[in-house]
Amino acid sequence: DIQMTQSPSTLSASVGDRVTITCRASQSISSWLAWYQQKPGKAPYLLIYKASSLQSGVPSRFSGSGSGTEFTLTISSLQPDDFATYYCQQYNNFPFTFGQGTKLEIK
Amino acid sequence: EVQLVESGGGLVKPGGSLRLSCAASGFPFFNAWMSWVRQAPGKGLEWVGRIKSKTDGGTTEDAAPVTGRFTISRDDSKNTLYLQMNSLKTEDTAVYYCTTDWGPHCGGGSCYWGQGTLVTVSS
């Protein structure tokens, strides 16, 4: 199975900050990577697919980059609604594995 | 509007069985590849498995922890996805979500999710 490792596990930041979350795959997954946002008690929400494509309706302050084994999710200017947990997921090989999550907290 | 509504969760004893359903609407279900993802209480997301559309062969893939115990199926006449869960273990306790990557801006990612249904395996 492909292991997905996110860092950091927890991130404290303030409104207006620029933040970056990293996701590393244990082997190459080309660009078959998605990023999700999840808030407590809610289903995950797709932000980014194919590593860098923004899903329709997602604010442009979110961006994704990378290919192969290293990927990043960047939020250019944090808004109050962005404090949540973020997951990466590879869908290049079965089983489609998720990272362990990054909890973005208010500093 | 795309809607996915899971049902069938509840409390079951270890070794027992449960069948989850996911009623889909607002998109051409027969043409969609559908997946199940679960989340244990306070934990991260875990991919359970996927079923292709019958047009694309209708084949299934699943994760090792559920292989041989869980079966994913679909009834396109009812626009419904199923997850038959047998030989349940306490570690199967989780919220189970159905998802689909159908849509022009999904690119293989899970664009649409249901609200989830809680399965608790406990004696």
Description:
The complex is a heterodimer of chains A (107) and B (123). Chain A is mostly beta strands and 107 residues long. In chain A, 0% of the residues lie in helices and 48% in strands. The termini of chain A are far apart. The mean pLDDT of chain B is 97. Chain B has 123 residues and is mostly beta strands. The interface between A and B is medium-sized, with 26 and 23 residues.
In brief, what are we looking at here?
Helix content of chain A is 0%, strand content 48%.
Tag the structure with descriptive keywords.
heterodimer, A: 107 residues, mainly beta, six-stranded mixed β-sheet, four-stranded antiparallel β-sheet, globular, B: 123 residues, seven-stranded mixed β-sheet, 11 strands, 0% helix, 47% strand
Total helix count of chain B?
A: 0
Number of helices of chain A: 0
- As a percent range, the share of helical residues of chain A equals under 10%
Structural class of chain A: mainly beta
Percent in helix of chain B: under 10%
Query: How much beta of chain A, percentage-wise?
Result: over 45%
Mean pLDDT of chain B: 97
Largest sheet of chain B: 7 strands, mixed
The rough form of chain B would be described as globular
Draw up the topology in text:
The complex is a heterodimer of chains A (107) and B (123).
Chain A: E1 4-7, E2 10-13, E3 19-25, E4 33-38, E5 45-49, E6 53-54, E7 62-67, E8 70-75, E9 85-90, E10 102-106
Parallel strand pairs in A: 2-10
Antiparallel strand pairs in A: 1-3, 3-8, 4-5, 4-9, 5-6, 7-8, 9-10
Chain B: E1 3-7, E2 10-12, E3 18-25, E4 34-39, E5 45-51, E6 60-62, E7 70-75, E8 80-85, E9 94-100, E10 112-113, E11 117-121
Parallel strand pairs in B: 2-11
Antiparallel strand pairs in B: 1-3, 3-8, 4-5, 4-9, 5-6, 7-8, 9-10, 9-11
